[in-house]
Protein: Thioredoxin reductase
Amino acid sequence: MDHIYDVIILGAGPAGLSAGLYAGRSRLDILIIEKGQAGGQIINTDEIENYPGQIVEGETGVSLVRRMYEQTEQFGAEHVRDTITNAELSGDIKVLTGEKDTYQAKNIIIATGAYARPIGCKGEQEYKGRGISYCATCDANFFTDLEVYVAGGGDAAVEEALYLTKFARKVTIIHRRDELRAAKSIQEKAFANPKITFLWDSVVKEVGGDGLLQTMTVKNVKTGELTKIEADPKDGLFGLFGFIGMIPNTSVFADKVETDDKGYIKTDEDMHTNVPGVYAVGDVRVKSLRQVVTAVADGAIAAVQVERSMSEY
Structure:
């Protein structure tokens, strides 16, 4: 492809679409590349309650993203589906090689996101958004006064379990070891919380239910014993939160932009990476809170920075 865009945005989740909207309103020549369905992780959320000003009844992650996508089209963004396999970012003109085509741009906004490390149990995919979640901040409210289970034993798992106690009547941490890996200060809070119990030396092997998560089989890794857990009939379901870790979608950019030891891209507050003309936004970058509201803010900031840099050409 000979065409050189002002900016190519990699990823069509909230961060990428927000960047596309702001760049489009600045009359930049934009291409948004998404390898699959637009939306990122938010499309797995059936209800949205914590997006400011969100008052549309029955709003889902899919419907919210659909409106974002349409906004980018209204302001001239071009969309293509392709999987980028190589990125040359060092020159003034960045070159992206995909499975279908090659793309060039003066600026790149990386919005490829991150994905939760799977719990690894049978039936997990089927019950995502139907009892299985990977974000307590997003979904805790849906499990108010219900029983909730947390798979994991590190800082994130225990911190999220503590957060869930504000909503659930009981929280059980399922951990494959006989002690937690979380920081001692976090462990002390968990052990002192009367709502939290522990299922040691155990992993989730299978989940099931009639449309919603209602059963779970847990295996003791030392004895091999299988235990079936069933939801209270009065509740109709329970929650299972996976906090085994997140995996950033940064493999294509390995050794091309600076990352932390987990693979997240390092940026400054204006979303600049260490490579001129390359920005990172949303879940893919090093940050303390990964939510829709912070993703769209990142996208807006990056697009404004691109527009300012283009005024210098």
